[in-house]
């Protein structure tokens, strides 16, 4: 699971969260369910078969060869079946993954699904996915059920061959009646364990396929701990506890907080670039506002600073170092980030506030942070206050979640603060409160805020106007008002008045 948490964001999006959950949970369960077969039943059955064959060989070598030849014919048929069983096991697991992914995604959008009365429609789609799971499972059951009759056929053949061969050897006196009877008894005893091996190997296929899927998942490189220029090679995934051997890079004194130089980037699967030759610099302290229409590339720019994705061309530097050279955990330690969805984790308010801290923090500090974003009263009103688990019975409103996410960023001492539309859901009072927070933060840190509100943008030392992935020359609000038609349009859209 830690491996999955460490996968790069584009990889997680590509596989789908539900699918990854299915691989970690259902595949692991499948693997465990066949452990008894692989570890206990099969070795025991194999031992019994070996011992019986040795005993039979001591009675009559020729008859043993005839027996083995008969079973070999059946084994060839079974090998063929097992090949299909393995293929079917992979198809079953893929179908389960697809179903789990869609179901998880639809559950995440349940409010919308209900609001648009789409339960039946979505249920139909899920039903199709479930039917695919049923089809592959039925095919798998049919294949497995073939094993016993094929084995039975092998046994019948062996019986006939041994009776004929044994009879002939009885007549020519090379085999005694007692030995022949004992041989037949051993042959009957052989059938049970041999069938057990055949069906056991069949059942093992789903475990082997689950193991292959799990290995494939583990083979996907995690986010690189070391950047390529550190190693001179491909980024090497190293689990965090083992890192770092060399001292972690430190910020370059006096370097800008963030700098973009001719940065272009595509999202995977997207034909047009989200950013085109974007260059700007954020000073070590002060407020920079990023504005632009929806889809302009604002969140993408923040994702590049956070190392969620890397530029196709150009260079992104944070605190003087190329983002590719920062160990990601160190890079992110230097950045406080409030994402556009102001995500909370399903845990207590305290744990939500403490994300980004390795140890505990005194309650008064947490309360101060909540107070400064105007959330203390709301949290105190929850049944267990700071210890209330958010996300199930108790949840916060959109604006409250946004303020909790801001309080979380305030509690870090990160020198770079990235806020992606942090006031999109705030009322006028909280908007004003937020202005004061921004000023406080910007006095000692570099703050980049994606904002639409004029009140935030007006006082920023620098405004970055992005449009269609292209950045206008940075300037102040007044500079841009004076020279940019696009900016004037945006401001007019905000105020309803000509700028
Ligand atoms: N995960 C993704 N996969 C593919 N394309 C994406 C992805 N995320 C964003 N894009 C595309 O990249 C472009 C920039 O998106 P981005 O999220 O950076 O815009 P934005 O300026 O933050 O918009 P908004 O104001 O609506 O949040 C858009 O055209 C969008 O469709
Ligand atoms: Mg955005």
Give an overview in words.
There is one protein chain. With 499 residues, this protein is of the alpha/beta class. The protein folds into two domains: 2-219, ABC transporter type 1, transmembrane domain (ABC transporter transmembrane region fold), CATH 1.20.1560.10; 258-495, P-loop containing nucleotide triphosphate hydrolases (Rossmann fold). It contains 19 helices and ten strands. The protein has helices spanning 2-5, 9-15, 17-33, 35-59, 61-108, 110-115, 119-171, 177-219, 228-231, 298-306, 328-333, 349-354, 363-372, 376-380, 398-410, 428-444, 454-458, 477-483, 485-495; strands at 258-265, 275-282, 286-291, 313-318, 321-322, 335-338, 416-420, 446-450, 462-467, 470-471. The chain has a six-stranded mixed β-sheet, sandwiched between helices. It has a four-stranded antiparallel β-sheet with strand order 2-1-4-5, with helices on one face. Strand 4 (313-318) and strand 5 form a beta hairpin. It is elongated, with a radius of gyration of 33 Å. Residues 226-244 have low confidence and may be disordered. Bound molecules: adenosine-5'-triphosphate and magnesium ion (MG). Magnesium ion binds at residues 298-299, 340, 420.
